[in-house]
Amino acid sequence: MSPANHLANHFELLATDGAARTGRLTTPHGVVRTPAFMPVGTAGAMKGMHWREVRDAGADIVLGNTYHLMLRPGAERIAALGGLQRFTGWGGPMLTDSGGFQVMSLSELRKVTEQAVTFRSHIDGTKLELSPERSIEVQRLLGSDIVMQMDECVRLPAGHADIERAMQLSLRWAERSKRAFETAADDTMLFGIVQGGDVPALRHVSARGLTEIGFHGYAIGGLAVGEPQAVMLSMIDETAPVLPADRPRYLMGVGTPEDMLEAVARGVDMFDCVMPTRNGRHGMAFTRFGQINLRNARHIDDPRPLDEESPWPAARNYSRAYLHHLVRAGETLGAMLLSEINVAYYQELMQGIRAAIASGTFEEFKMQTRAGWARGDIAQM
After folding, report:
1. 98 marked ligand binding residue
2. Is 181 annotated among the ligand-binding residues?
3. Are the CB atoms for 40 and 274 separated by under 8 Å?
4. Residue 72: its pLDDT value, please?
5. Rounded to whole angstroms, what are the CA distances from 18 to 15, 22, 48, 362?
6. If I label 52, which of 38, 116, 133, 141 is the partner at 20 to 30 A Cα–Cα?
7. Considering the domain boundaries, does residue 317 fall inside one?
8. What are the positions of the active site (predicted)?
9. 200 vs 250: CA distance, rounded Å
10. Domains of the chain: total
């Protein structure tokens, strides 16, 4: 048995079209259709949305944030209340990140050592320690279906020496994460995270090292952190072919519809991003005609819906004039409606991608989708 097969495979590849893939990932709480977009429920809630809307929009899996949940309400408390699925009422598959990125980005007072990261809570200043072992323990207590290894993410641009140091540390933490994960036997999964910044050779070292350790799936981390899109895509080009073809590939923190379309074309299976809900709270709608800024005055007398052909009711049933009014008046309903419209569009895009790959028409779908974005909403006039 090769190192990559140390852990059981929960992923079934159903079809390919070029490098694009569609498949099925089986978790303890349900099946995830890939390519999949995971809406982000940072603190156990989707901002501006009820879980039933997330489910109705077509999401198979959502993401929870280890750092925020371990601080409040606490992993042990969530475990005592039945785990994240029962605690939140979501009930379906959940992936939790390791917490490492938030420690790096949110805590001003932090120290990285070989053993762990020590930091102060952004809530009350309490000094805490997060090690690979503690990260796995917290995610286990949360009841995650997919657990992420602890890693160190370096913001780009960065120097070669700093990128290499963080990559090598993440590899050592990957080994420790796997050892900690293997102390419990169940059907949950552990994903390794490829680091290496924008240096192809370091990406190769990281990907091969993680493959040797062996994981249920592999994430491409350390991207969408300030680098141009061309750099991100080139790093996917370098990384994806090195990863095991029979395991899911997850591009962390991405992204825009354009980013996801291009990443799928390079063999990526899973995505997550706060953009649908965050942009919704700021008056931006994602549609098949591209992004529409409902703050713009041109919508003030526009009786048209955002998209009369959308499968999502809110995109069909509310006028642009009303949505513009809600956004400009600061009404919570505006943020709620645009958030659900955006999450639904992301899921509609994923469904279209999956169907196109299955039918061998992904390139045609990609061109048609991009043409719609480029044409803009003027096409409805």
Report:
1. yes
2. no
3. yes
4. 94
5. 10, 11, 38, 9
6. 141
7. yes
8. 97, 272
9. 18
10. 2
Beta-bridge partner residues of 39: 273
Residue 292 counted as domain residue: yes
Please compute the mean of the pLDDT values over residues 204-217 and round it to a whole number. 98
Residue 162 scores a pLDDT above 90: yes
Distance CA 305, CA 314 (A): 9
**Cis preceding-peptide flag for 28 (omega within 30 of 0):** no
Inside any domain, residue 119: no
Residue 124, marked binder: no
Apex CA 278: angle with CA 107 and CA 57, to 5°? Answer: 125
Does 113 map to a domain? no
DSSP 293-323: ETTSGGGTT--SBS-TT-SSHHHHHSBHHHH
Half-sphere exposure at residue 62, Cβ-oriented, CA atoms within 13 angstroms: 33
DSSP character string of 157-213: S--HHHHHHHHHHHHHHHHHHHHHHTTS-SS-EEEEEE--TT-HHHHHHHHHHHHHH
Predicted pLDDT at 184: 67
- Identify whether the C-beta of residue 169 lies closer than 8 Å to the C-beta of residue 126: no
**Bridge partner list, 191:** 148, 217
Reported as type and span, the H/E element at residue 86 is helix 83-88
pLDDT at 105: 73
Q: Does 151 carry a binding-site annotation? A: yes
Averaged pLDDT for residues 142-153? 95
pLDDT at 317: 97
Q: Which amino acids are annotated catalytic? A: 97, 272
Query: Which stretch of DSSP H or E encloses residue 69?
Result: helix 66-71
Nearest C-alpha neighbor of 196 from the set 241, 236, 147 = 236
Structural domain for 135, as ranges: 9-100+131-272
Instruction: Identify the H or E element spanning 38.
Output: strand 36-41
39 Cβ neighbours under 8 A, 6+ residues apart: 46, 49, 54, 59, 62, 63, 272, 276, 277, 343, 346
Q: Which two three-digit tokens encode residue 273? A: 């991003």
Give the phi and the psi of residue 329 in degrees, each rounded to 5.
-85, -5
pLDDT of residue 378: 65
The reply, when asked if residue 222 is annotated as ligand binding, is: yes
User: Is 198 labelled a binding residue?
Assistant: no
Q: At residue 110, does pLDDT exceed 90?
A: no
